[in-house]
Amino acid sequence: MDTRSTGATMRAAPQAAQTQVLSGVRELAARYDALLLDQWGVLHDGAHPLPGALDCLAQLRLAGKRVVILSNSGRSGDANARAMRRFGITAAHYDAVVTAGDDAREAFRARTDRFHRTLGRRALVIARAIDVGQVADFGLVAAADAASADLVLVLSVEADGRTARASEALLAAARERDLPMVCANPDVTVVSHGEVIDGPGAIARRYGALGGRVRYHGKPDRGVYDLALAVLARLGIAVARAAAVGDSMLNDVAGAHGAGLACALVAGGIHRDALGVTPGQLPDAAHWTAFLAGSKVVPEYLIASFVW
Questions:
Q1: What is the pLDDT along the chain (308 residues), one digit of tens a residue?
Q2: DSSP 3-state assignment of 36?
Q3: Rounded CA gap, 40 and 59, in Å?
Q4: Would you list the DSSP string of 267-305?
């Protein structure tokens, strides 16, 4: 159980009373003083910066805008900042990087809420091989298997998605011992090397479906937004003068609304198939209407990709 590309190709722009179709981020910059930017699927795909993204970041800074990268990565903001350098995204492009991993680390360090207060310190880590060592940042030690673990910590998935496919046996063993799970990256799907694959959140959802206890950190939960809004407050930016940009209805749009922020949805991200687009395109009216049918949230803005 859960406890918790350069230039848009115009294709008969969707019509929705609540959503304004924008040609680029420059239109957001004309309305807001600061932007909270998703990372994967907006700025890069895990292998390369997305077309136009670096220029767009540079233009935002030239316009004097404040930028906070707000990511559901299980890594810390500092670790993400280091990793993004390989895409050419540097400290000159933003004011801060805030992650779901930061929120989870704060919770483990404080241990003030009921769920974290009762957790042990031996964690069965589900993550990319490169990320397993981060368990120490949470004040935890890695357990060899479910039999020797006090909890399960989900951080990331391999770029080819095999982490999710290979986790079933681990989840069954953990569930047999009723181990609690902390998911420090709730993304159900992620854009990786140009493909949409199952993310860490899919693993956590599977564990919940098995009856396991799961605590999520990151978007859409309010905790990670509070960390990002605190950064903006220190910069003198009021919530009403900030907006979010992301590619997930569940995490970015719903999360932004929960924090009192408007949100621009990037069409060419994880919803590209449902919207019938490739990166750089806007959906046609029929796809957009079908996409919104039954949705509890509607983005204030729609852009094809993160371009100026």
A1: 444 433 333 344 444 458 999 999 999 999 999 999 999 999 998 889 999 999 999 999 999 999 999 999 999 999 999 999 999 999 999 999 999 999 999 999 999 989 999 999 999 999 988 888 889 999 999 999 999 999 999 998 887 667 777 788 999 999 999 999 999 999 888 777 767 778 899 999 999 999 999 999 999 999 999 999 999 999 999 999 999 999 999 999 999 999 999 999 999 999 999 999 998 999 999 999 999 997 899 999 999 999 99
A2: strand
A3: 20
A4: TTSTTHHHHT--TTBPPPHHHHHHHHTT-S---SEEESS
Q: Which of 196, 216, 236 is the last residue of a domain?
A: 216
The 8-class DSSP code of residue 143 comes to -
Q: Are residues 233 and 298 in the same domain?
A: yes
Could you tell me if 78 and 206 lie in one domain? Answer: no
3-state SS class at 174: helix
Q: How far apart are CA 159 and CA 156, in angstroms?
A: 9
Q: Which residue has the tokens 């420090």?
A: 184
Neighbours of 114 (CB within 10 A): 8
| 3-class SS string, 109-120 | HHCCCHHHHCCC
Which domain covers residue 152, as residue numbers? 119-216
> Residue 175: which CATH number?
3.40.50.1000
- Do the Cβ atoms of 212 and 65 come closer than 8 Å? no
Split into its structural domains, the chain has a count of 2
Q: Residue 161 domain-assigned?
A: yes
